[in-house]
Amino acid sequence: MLQVDWKYVRASRSLRTGCPRSQQMLELRNITKRFANVLANDNVNIVVKPGTIHAIVGENGAGKSTAMRIAYGFYKADSGEILIDGQVRNISTPHDAIALGVGMVHQHFMLVETMTVAENIVLGAEPGNAVALDLGKASAEIQKLSAEFKLAVNPNAVVEHLSVGQQQRVELLKALYRHARLLILDEPTAVLTPQEVEEFFAILRRMREQGKTVVIITHKLSEVLAISDEVTVMRDGKVVGQVQTKETNAAELARLMVGREVLLRVEKPDADIGVTQLSVKHLSVTHADGTKRLDNVSFEVHKGEILGIAGVEGNGQTELIEALAGLVPASQLSGEVRLEGRDVTRLDARARREIGIAHIPEDRHRRGLLLDFSLTENSILGVHYRDALVSYAGVFLNDKAIRKRADQIIAGFDVRPANQDLPARALSGGNQQKLIIGREFDLQPKLLLVSQPTRGVDIGAIEFIHRKLVALRDDGCAVLLISAELEEVTALSDRLLIIHEGRIVGDVDPKVATIEEIGLLMTGSSKH
Amino acid sequence: MSELFSVALFWSTIRLSTPLILAALGGMFSERAGVINIALEGMMLAGAFTAAAVTHAVGNPFVGLAAGMAAGALIAAIHAVACISYKADQVVTGTAINILMIGMPAFLSGAFFLSSGSTPQLPKEDLIPWTPIVIAFALVPIAWYVLYKTPFGLRLRSVGENPEAADAAGVSVARMKYAGVLLSGALAGIGGAYLSIGQSSLFTRNMTSGRGFIALAALIFGKWRPVQTLLACLLFGFTEAVSIQMQGVVKLPSGEDIPVQFIQMVPYLLTIIVLAGFIGSSRPPQALGIPYQKER
Amino acid sequence: MIFLRQLLFPLIAVIAAFIVGGILILIIGDNPIEAYRLLLGSALSWPDGIGYTLFYATPLIFTGLAVLVAFRCGLLNIGAEGQLYVAAFATAWVGISFANMTAWILLPLCFLAAILAGGVWGAIPGILKARFGSHEVINTIMLNFVAVALCSYFTQYHYKNPGPIMETTAIGGGAHIARLGRFVPGLPERIPVNVAFLLALLCCLLVYLFLWRTKWGYELRATGTNPTAAAYGGISIRKQIIIAMTISGSLAGMVGINEVLGYRYRYYDGFSDNYGFTGIAVALLGRNHPVGVVVAALLFAVLQRGGIHVDGFSEYVTKDIVQVLQGTIILFVAAEAFFSGSFNRFGLLKRAKV
Hints:
The structure holds three protein chains of three kinds.
Chain A: H1 6-18, E1 26-35, E2 38-48, E3 53-57, H2 64-71, E4 79-84, E5 87-89, H3 94-99, E6 102-105, H4 117-122, E7 128-129, E8 132-133, H5 135-149, H6 164-177, E9 182-186, H7 194-209, E10 213-218, H8 221-227, E11 230-235, E12 238-244, H9 250-258, E13 276-286, E14 292-302, E15 306-310, H10 317-325, E16 333-339, E17 342-343, H11 349-354, E18 357-360, H12 364-368, H13 375-379, E19 390-391, H14 392-395, E20 396-397, H15 399-412, H16 429-441, E21 447-451, H17 459-474, E22 478-482, H18 486-492, E23 495-500, E24 503-508, H19 515-522
Parallel strand pairs in A: 3-10, 3-11, 6-9, 9-10, 15-22, 15-23, 18-21, 21-22
Antiparallel strand pairs in A: 1-2, 1-4, 4-5, 7-8, 11-12, 13-14, 13-16, 16-17, 19-20, 23-24
Helix pairs in contact in A: 15-16, 16-17
Chain B: H1 7-32, H2 40-58, H3 61-85, H4 90-113, H5 131-149, H6 151-161, H7 163-168, H8 173-199, H9 211-221, H10 226-245, E1 250-251, E2 257-258, H11 260-275
Antiparallel strand pairs in B: 1-2
Helix pairs in contact in B: 1-5, 1-8, 1-9, 1-10, 2-3, 2-4, 2-8, 2-9, 3-4, 3-8, 5-6, 5-8, 6-8, 9-10, 9-11, 10-11
Chain C: H1 2-27, H2 32-41, H3 48-72, H4 80-97, H5 103-132, H6 136-157, H7 195-213, H8 215-225, H9 227-232, H10 237-253, H11 255-264, H12 275-285, H13 290-313, H14 321-334, H15 337-345
């Protein structure tokens, strides 16, 4: 009864296998992924056409990396399908993805530092047979690829001796060596200077010319517009738009990313700038490996002022904050730090907190919280020894006083759920951040060091945190703010310094300076 | 002093180094794959007991040697399952295996041979005093080649240094770790077998008496590299040979005695000194001891 | 629920280990029920069973606490064995050297010797880690052997009691501590359980108060759970590592009080029955909590006591079954995921999982 039109079947099959160009390179269908209590990907659908550069944009925590890590087999989706060349594929390990021609360069490079470039590139796809590793053959092939894509790197160099830019090239070569047709790049420009970014984009265009498909994950809109053919926008784990790059503009993308008109102008009165609170003179940090992370930095922060520091991540911001907080070993420090005229350069972290320096660290999980400890126990970190919190000969913790203090912080900063005995781990990112901010504000600091205050925090909490920072400023505190979000740092700061390769390269008025101007300084390309 | 360097002492050093070399090279495969192996002692005991018991039953020491190797690997499999599949703490698991293996062979000896924890004496023709020595010394270049010149070695090392990178490159981290740990058990098993059916002629309770730990010390002293580890084993074997030969009366040229206990301490003190970085820099595999866990 | 979960897994681990042991006993052709009756039953008799069980539990409480304190600071002290040897010898040394002093001076001196010597031996790997970053596990293993060799040297060459046994001469009478039989009616004084057992219980309380009720304990635990955050909170990680290892060593050292001042009244070479290593099992099984440590120490003491009876009264099973059980228990406790995984598969513990 059933008539099968074989001609049609054959034709459709040849369409599927014979001419893959007409197929989509990569398609994610209804991908959902949940981590513990976070819905990282919620029914995500993405289509990537072959031979294009496809950007995936979104704020931190929007689920971009998760979606692409699923495509690469690094994570397993809870539900949904992955299609490569138009066919549903079972990709449960990176091995599967590699076999299908998918390569990925992760935000944190996946390189074995103690091994050579060649060893890293061939790892998992070794030339030669099981009993003999043919690194000579590999080197030749690597050199050929290097020449073809203009990715100069010495195959015999040990990875840990390479610069970040060179390591990125190794990662690209790794994917190309495996004959990747689709390259997924996770925030590739975060570690690059603007010149390097230009160079990098040239490499990507060359790859496109050679018929490769590129997916680039980023949250920088200027880059999206500069390099991509098509854009997928994600927000809160969902895809909220997929558009042709030439048919859109930065404002539209920003609106999609944030979910409302971007009006990141913080309502704040003019600063009532007082006397110098913090003065930093010729501060340098030399890391244990001998590299200079902070180079002869001098500036002042006044009472009642928010001083912002803008820069590409990894240009010495972390070292600056940690040096001021007393977390850098004295042996790595040189220069002078004064608070209210008093030399505090040699004081350790506790002594600095004692004289009124509070610190909201950039990485709340690593630095700011004891995740397995209760909210109560977290609320006393750094002040646990103070007279007000101990009783009986100054040794035993005073449970009542501690709970009262924790209560105040939780109520005052709207930490939810407001259960003191919950481990900090059980809180969402925003509430964890509010707990830290509450704890540090409670010190009534003279100087607040604050780094990435709203990273991975939901919109509502961002506004709350911004208001609190401005209020602290208006109370006469000096605030030193570092943020990777240029919009945040320009909106909040009363004065803005730009840092590049450990040096202060610019000092601008954020009300006057344009983003382009600041961006140029961040690249170190123009001296102010 | 001249008696220190006699021919007898040379052979004694070779004999005493053999179990150390086997166990230390085994430990190298495990630790290079990122799994701490303080259970070498237990794995050696398993090998020693099994080799003696099987040789007694079968009458063929080569079968006994193979059985000892298998027993070592079996114990290693317990370590591997607990540490790799169930992410147990590697040091704790190693300690558990060591305690278990103090009891188990003695328990089985007691039951099977109605003894107080030893196996029956084997006849001289059932012993293999030379084979394990040959295996041990031949293994050094082989281990070097495997580690540095084969895809297997490259993957094994990558897993111990940066498992996430290996995973991203399509290497199965768990499989490589299993391979490393099982190899370590097999080699330690041979090392143990040598003690019972090579060096002596029976298994006695706790007969390794800390050799697994000396092997671990040699591995660290040798900075996790095959040739240096061999040299460390020879050094430690030599100190043991001296302490046995001199029976506690090593005379200094000045006429003073060196108590044997001080010679026994040498390997351990040297290891502590090396680990503190006094003799060159020593860098363990970077992911040593850290279970590989990623959100899935 | 969380509390129940805390109790549940150690319990399951113990039961599972007994099942494994039972299968082994069946394999060698003996009756597991009978063997276990001997193993567990003998510990409950009065006065010998209970007396000896408490005596065996004493060193295990000390070493369990030692491992616990280090663990709460994120360190694994597998050097309790060496620490207790050094401490025991130091105790004996003081007891011998100042044998003629009155008890009022000699006893505190001996206590101090045990605590200090153990503390110093524990501090060494702590300092090595804090100063050079070398791993405490390897260093403690190495120091165990050094400790044994050192004590053996001093015993053999300087303080040897004439005769074939490797032991020192006796300590002064003033350094003896009372056996519990002196206070407890019905408990004969030949049973060596002594005041050190009460000291062990007191130490449990002190360790609890220290870790969870003082600012110092807070600093130690903060370092253990997240060292970088602790440093941010103005806590010196290096200092905490040294403090934790010193306290840990001191606790292990107090085994010397039980052994030398309350039992043999001299240093006996090789006296420790793996107390240091069993301490790891005790701490783990006791979930690194002082109360848990007491319970776990008692359990292992019961096994140790029972082992002797098994040896004597069963045909094939020897006391070595005790070590087999101990090892298996630690394995199961360490690989907790083994159970939680299979339980979750059956949906039994879904709610308990936070």
